[in-house]
Design a protein that fits this description.
This protein has 17 helices and two strands. It has about 425 residues and is an all-alpha fold. Helix 1 runs antiparallel to helix 3, helix 6 packs across helix 7 and helix 13 packs parallel to helix 14.
Length: about 425
Amino acid sequence: MLKHYHIPKENKTVKPIDYLLFFLLIQIGWLPIIFNIHRLVVLVNLVFAFYISYRRNKGVIFDINIFLLFIIYVALALAQGVIWGLSIISLITSFTISFLIPYYLFKSYYEDFFFILEKVIRILTIIALTIWFTHQFIPGAKEIIISIINIVNKYNDEHLVRGMIFYTYWGNVGTAFGVSRNAGFASEPGAFAVFLMLGIIINYINDIPLFHKRNLLYIVATITTFSTAGYLALASLGFLLLKHKKGRIFGLLLFPLFLYGAVFAYKNMDFMQNKIEEQFEEQTKVDLYEPTSGRFLGARKSLYVLSQYPLHGRGLLAMTKAEKYSDPESAGYGWLSEMARFGILLGALYMYFFFKGLYFLIKSGGKDFYEFVVFSLAIMINLSAQVYITSSFFIIFFYLGLYKSKKINYKYPYSKTN
């Protein structure tokens, strides 16, 4: 008899308000740009997270770890503040976004966190793909979308206007195929690819096959981003075919085809080999006083910051960051720029607990070190030009590694039945 897959009903303790919170948290870095209400959005999300933590735990929990994190954060802010100044409001806001809200999420949801997040990403991806295909191929749809964006951004005085909450319109035709890139619900296509990869990883750890319809949704969406990092990260998942337990022969036969296709795409797509080589050659030769543009120049500036301020870094708070992009210390690309905010020691400690937490999650799902390496590679490739590694949805790995967490019990196991 043919086997089929099913997913049991979700945990009844998860309510619509939980999904709403995760949607707001995904948008926390993008909605303020639309509405110019940065601190209000932070405050709303903090109150929301505080309320849910109280509702789920019957009281908000502060423990020694979060207290020590706050002390370290304050000490680091003071060290940088001696040189570049200090704002108490900025300190509180920054710590709230970076550590406090994720702390509430960790304490409130634990294993439920990943299932709620994946479902929110999935729904938003379906919406994004629908809108993207509509304005690519239906005459007049693009004009309607632009009109909606103008209405949403009526009171926005920012120079960058392209968001409509559920979807970000990326109007420039930047591919050889004559279509625009898909930025989904994120700020730009590469950022969208980060969330898509996170959805695939959560599903795979929960025993959802790589080519199941859920993951195929994310794969198709990644293709529409035309993101260099997104494609490379997706290609790295091809190594999972070698671990195909139930169809080892199928995986071994498919892997060479997958590898050939990946190499062919890399060599023949303009935004792959040509783009990478041109950017590498250009950005490794230019002076550090050039405006920060591109992951390679950004990485050079991040390393420069770490070389100048190895103990405390620079840029923890907004006022301690370089004011001009032409400043050699203006590091604004990728996970390395986030490490430059903390200095070498604290940055290394963050990465240690981050990977420890990721490994813990993968082991909880019954996967091994090989799959941990593949997922780590995919994540770091995707984050090479994005600053999400200290966002709520990645810092959860840090907390999993920091706390002596109990083994995650998957409440919605993806099982096979006859």
